[in-house]
Amino acid sequence: MSEKKECPQCRGVCCTKIENFGVTIGSLEILKDINLHIHCGELTAIIGPNGAGKTTFIKALLGQVPHTGKIKFMKSDGSGNKPPVMGYVPQKISLDPTSPTSVIDLFLACSGFKPVWLMRPKKAVSEIRERLKKVKADHLLERQLGKLSGGELQRILLALALDPVPEILLLDEPVSGIDQNGLKMFYENVSTLREAYDLSIILVSHDIDMIEKYADRVVLLNRTIIASGRPEEVLGSESFYEIFSARFGRNRGQEGEY
Fold first, then answer.
1. Residue (of 236, 240, 215, 228) closest to 33 by Cα position
2. Which CATH superfamily is domain 15-94+144-248 in?
């Protein structure tokens, strides 16, 4: 893939360089020799079999597990940068379906308003509504969290991850178990947001159709990088077929079918 050009609207990070990255817990080597350059405005999809280390990779980037190697964040002018603001959307969160807590209550609590049932500043409510509009979820402002569908909840979590607007957005299988309509809307939202804010996005996903459509780069991970490149290169590779043959039955590169 060609180098991404410098852009005056970049929020600060032009390139994230992950060099000689590895994770070992006890005597178990989970990741080794990970080398990636991720440019601002790019969506990099991480795919791989179960147990490949995909979630561990995300947690290591967040600083939740120790790692070896280096992570360098470079500005568009080539200078070094402090660790960037990271946004994170997990695979799922546990909610009490009987709780009366609403979407707006969640946002106010995350903003530090206590107790939320007594304080609803008009300005804060207006700002929350605008944040929800970015992910096409402003109509859910008063909805109880326990009554949200899987797709609706993930849009709410995405809106939360965008305040403050991050320089790198990490998505760990954010649409697992969501229906096709919710899946499509989530990817469309992510695509729109990365263009609007020039975000670097790292997405762990099993949604091959959506990855093929929306990703700039695909990384096939199985404890180390097996293949990396444009979606058509990686998804049509022999390495992809060898790992996912049980799922797809044959090489996707043949006639482009599953």
1. 228
2. P-loop containing nucleotide triphosphate hydrolases (3.40.50.300)
